[in-house]
Structures are given as structure tokens and as C-alpha cells.
Design goal:
229 residues, mainly alpha, 5 helices
Length: 229
């Protein structure tokens, strides 16, 4: 019987598994009779669990083994690709980053040269205007010519802004990461309690665990049941 057929068979004991929560959600254990009923249900759960384990575990195991086999076969071909990608990406990123740095420096230099040229022209115009007002035309012309020479010199010394380096399909991203150099100095807000280690310690030490600052040890009772045989 397939898994679908099992769950569609409302007349079988499988229907009990699908409704067992609703059937027992309001159960109360208050005397020996109710204890016997509740424990009987618990044993039914164990029996149903064993039934479904028998029904599905082999298929799950086989499917998992098949999955691992397929993953291993795929990795045989993709691992070399991943390694090649790990080698190439940093080289491409380093080149693109360097080209971006060069281009940004050139853009800043060009902007500064543009601003210097504008100031040179503005200052020369102010001086020339005052000289002209005083009738000193030759001096005004000399000032303008000198400013023009200085502006040409600024333009000649301004670096050419290179075109942006392009790698088809690639985008340069900035990744922020960290490296711990002294874990004793890491602020508490960045720390996480090792709950696995803590739980293992408490389970092993039991009553001898004592008091652990910031931790409340909880002691609970539960049932470990088994199907008789």
C-alpha cells in the first residue's frame, strides 16, 4: 500500500493516527482508571509509530542513499568549477577595484582642475575689469592672456578619466566581514550562550550541577514507555 493509500484509508488504524490529537486533547488523568486509559493511548501511539517506521523508514533510507549518491556524482563535476571560480573571482575583483580607484582619482583630479580653471578665469576677469576701468588696456590684456595660459596648462595636466572596466555579467560588490583578534574583548551583546554545551553539562551533572549564574535549571518528569512483548 502506498503512502497516499494509507492516509486515504479512513477505515484503517491509520485514521487513528490522523485524529489522535483531537481524540485526546482534552484527556485528564485524575485516577487509576483515567491513567490506564491515557497510558493505553500512549502505548497505541508507540505501536502506530512502530508501524509507520516499518512502512516508511526503508524507503526514506533508500531515498537518502540515492540523494547522497546523486550529490556525490554532481560534485565530481561541479567541485572543479567551484575551485576555478574561487581562483578567478578574487583576481577579477582586484582588477575591477583597482580600475575603480584609478577612475575615481582621475575624476577628482579633473573636478579640481575644472574648479581651479574657473577660479583662474574669474580672478583674471575681475583684475582685467579694474585695469580697463583705469584705462590700462595692455595690462588687462596681459592678465587675460596669462590666465588663458594657466588654464591651458591646467587642462594639459588634467588626467584623462578612463572608461569603466566592464566584465560581462559581473558586478563588483563590497562584502563586510570580520576576524576575531581577542575574544575576551568582544562586547557581551555579540556573544551567544553555548546551549548545547550547557544542556550537556546539566544532563550529565544532574543534581550536582549546582547554581549557574544567569541560568535556571529546570527539572521535569516525563514518561519513557515501551510496547510490551
Amino acid at each position: 500500500m502506498s503512502a497516499i493509500e494509507i492516509y486515504e484509508d479512513d477505515n484503517s488504524e491509520n485514521a487513528l493516527a490522523l485524529t489522535i490529537i483531537d481524540r485526546n486533547a482534552d484527556i485528564t488523568v485524575f485516577d487509576q482508571e483515567s491513567l490506564t486509559v491515557a497510558n493505553g493511548t500512549l502505548l497505541d501511539i508507540k505501536r502506530l509509530r512502530a508501524k509507520f517506521d516499518d512502512e516508511f523508514d526503508l524507503g526514506i533510507k533508500q531515498a537518502f542513499a540515492h540523494h547522497r549518491t546523486l550529490v556525490a556524482q554532481k560534485r565530481k563535476w561541479t567541485d572543479p568549477l567551484d575551485e576555478a571560480e574561487r581562483i578567478l573571482k578574487p583576481k577579477i575583483a582586484a582588477y575591477l577595484d583597482e580600475q575603480d580607484r584609478i577612475r575615481l582619482e582621475a575624476e577628482r583630479a579633473a573636478q579640481l582642475a575644472k574648479e581651479a580653471a574657473a577660479k583662474e578665469a574669474e580672478d583674471a576677469a575681475d583684475v582685467a575689469h579694474e585695469l580697463i576701468q583705469n584705462g590700462e588696456l595692455d595690462e588687462a590684456k596681459a592678465i587675460v592672456d596669462m590666465a588663458a595660459e594657466n588654464i591651458d596648462k591646467l587642462k594639459a595636466e588634467t588626467p584623462i578619466v578612463p572608461a569603466r572596466a566592464v566584465a560581462e555579467g559581473a558586478t563588483l560588490k563590497t562584502i563586510w566581514d570580520f576576524e576575531i583578534i581577542d575574544e575576551n574583548l568582544v562586547p557581551r551583546k555579540f556573544l551567544k550562550v553555548d546551549e548545547v554545551k550547557l544542556r550537556r553539562y546539566i544532563q550529565n551533572m544532574k543534581e550536582q550541577a549546582g547554581e549557574i549564574p544567569g541560568v535556571r535549571i529546570i527539572r521535569r518528569k516525563t514518561i519513557a514507555s515501551k510496547i510490551g512483548g
